[in-house]
Specification:
It is a single chain. The protein is mainly alpha-helical and 48 residues long. It has two helices and no strands.
Length: 48
């Protein structure tokens, strides 16, 4: 049970870090880039 909780918390931390990186990229990226990222994220959500 502990290993499952540890893996889950680790994946949550990784997801938070990735979200922070995406936000930084969006500041520098053009609107078209952010729209493309949004469509990719929507596709992933549909798959899940």
């Amino acid at each position: 049970n502990f290993s499952i909780v540890f893996a889950f918390s680790l994946s949550v931390k990784i997801a938070i870090l990735q979200n922070a990186q995406v936000r930084k990229r969006r500041v520098w990226a053009s609107p078209n880039d952010s729209q493309r990222w949004g469509s990719i994220l929507r596709q992933k959500q549909r798959e899940n």
